[in-house]
Design goal:
The chain is α/β, with parallel strands linked by helices and 473 residues long. The protein has 15 helices and 16 strands. β11, α9 and β12 form a beta-alpha-beta unit. The protein is elongated and about 85 Å long.
């Protein structure tokens, strides 16, 4: 009896102390619990190990993508969530085929092999490959300067590099990725027979980086093959062209576009205890490119998002609002999963108030970017001091993530986790996007950082936008 009474007394005393804390102290204590749980008893790294090393690259429509769906669904079910389900979505299926091959021929019989990889969605070369003279351009807008007279019958070599003087590597990437995405469609209008694109990479290495590309409205019969070339070989080819613009390049791609196939978004949910109709989302994309195992892009975001819900379960924190983890399929070459989730949410008239995406690698977290109203952002900034002990200082307006973007309407706030990006493009869409390049501690810090923001929004809510006033402005 004395032991029971003593335990009851300790419980009441602790509860009394906790209830006397001001809100900021209580939030700070919860932060400490979240970070401790993630760093001392985290699950994200083990999940990523399996996803990367037992399943591997997860290109949309592939067997590995389906394995990832089944694995993550099973892991979410083990967490004891209130609901776990699969959301069907039709996705494109593109296969790379046999390894690509290319060489530069400076004179008859004198050749040097170069490292290339097909861009995602490219058509194959003819069975015997494509061989032609090369014309170097500095981006899509540069094509008009040369015109059809100089481009027709040649391979266009897009060689605009990512700018190394920009601190934001994503800004650098955005400044030249159009040549990868639409270069083939635009060069084809001038009669080019193929395109080779400098890899989106700030580092000089021998690894070609793939990525999505589009032919736009170009008829299938007029589409030309497109490949990325490593940064080292791009520099080599460019140097040769300054001495010999008569040289030829040969390349062979064996890729193929198939009919769409069914896949799934994987969704898990903790139902809100007070406002179940208000939905918060955390997520990343389950698909990846096939050259590596997709650990940074976006295995890290997947397991960090799963970990947010696990942390709350382990800490016995019952969110007021419904919290969902959504593992989106097909971000890399179609965005079908993100669009399908938003479409279903709209059809059900669901009330999403917040969505947070992790799709910038598993590196050290620096903060968040937000797509929010000024009043909402001001409220979020008021929480910044809570993050400073964890060296999280970046709170800026400026976008969220591709998969959560279709949810944007009304009061919903969108956010993106922003890790340190300086090494991200060393691995992005390349064969070295593999598990050994992810640091366990950095990954776990990212998961805790996401959970902390979700906790604050769940506890305190978000300001409503005066839409009438906004429309007048």
């Amino acid at each position: 009896m004395k032991k029971i009474f003593f335990a009851f007394f300790v419980f009441i005393g602790a509860h009394s102390v906790f209830s006397q804390m001001n809100p900021e102290e209580a939030d700070s204590l919860m932060f400490r619990k979240i970070y401790d749980m993630s760093l001392l008893n985290g699950k994200s790294y083990d999940w990523l190990d399996y996803l990367s090393n037992n399943i591997g690259g997860r290109l949309s429509g592939s067997y590995q993508a389906q394995q990832a769906v089944e694995y993550t669904k099973a892991q979410l079910e083990e967490l004891g969530l209130d609901k776990v389900w699969l959301q069907p979505v039709m996705v494109p299926k593109w296969t790379r085929g046999a390894k690509e091959f290319a060489y530069v021929e400076t004179s008859p019989g004198l050749t040097k092999n170069v490292n290339i990889t097909a861009l995602g969605g490219s058509v194959p070369t003819p069975a015997g490959g494509t061989k032609a003279r090369v014309i170097e351009v500095q981006g899509v807008e540069d094509l008009a300067r040369y015109g059809k007279e100089q481009i027709q019958g040649k391979i266009v070599f897009f060689n605009r590099p990512m700018r190394p003087d920009l601190i934001s590597t994503f800004e650098s990437y955005g400044g030249c990725v159009d040549q990868r995405y639409s270069g083939a469609a635009e060069a084809g209008k001038y009669g080019a027979v193929g395109v080779i694109v400098r890899s989106m990479n700030l580092r000089m290495d021998d690894l070609p980086h793939t990525g999505s590309m589009s032919y736009g409205e170009t008829p299938v019969s007029k589409r030309i093959p497109a490949a990325a070339i490593s940064t080292n070989d791009a520099a080599y080819l460019s140097g040769l062209l300054t001495m010999n613009n008569e040289l030829e390049l040969y390349f062979k791609l064996n890729c193929e576009q198939h009919a769409d196939v069914q896949s799934y978004n994987v969704i898990g949910e903790i139902t809100g205890s007070e406002h179940p109709e208000e939905i918060m989302v955390v997520g990343g994309h389950l698909d990846s490119w096939d050259l590596g195992d997709g650990s940074h892009d976006d295995g890290a975001g997947v397991v960090q998002s799963m970990e947010v819900l696990r942390l709350f379960k382990e800490l016995n924190y019952k969110p007021k609002r419904t919290l969902r983890v959504v593992l989106f399929m097909n971000e890399e070459n179609g965005l079908r999963g993100g669009n399908k989730y938003a479409e279903v949410a709209k059809s059900k008239n669901e009330n999403h108030i917040f969505a947070l995406e992790s799709d910038a690698g598993g590196f050290t977290p620096r903060g968040f970017s937000f797509d929010a109203d000024k009043a909402q952002f001001s409220q979020i900034q008021s929480w910044k001091e809570l993050f400073k002990p964890y060296l999280i200082h970046y709170f800026e307006m400026g976008g969220s993530g591709a998969d959560v973007a279709p949810l944007k309407k009304g009061d919903v706030v969108l956010a993106g986790l922003r890790p340190d990006s300086q090494r991200y493009f060393d691995h992005h869409h390349a064969a070295n996007d593999t598990f050994e390049h992810v640091n366990k501690r950095e990954l776990e810090l990212g998961a805790a950082t996401m959970a902390s923001l979700v906790y604050l929004i769940d506890k305190h809510g978000l300001k409503k936008i005066d839409t009438a006033k906004k429309e007048k402005l």
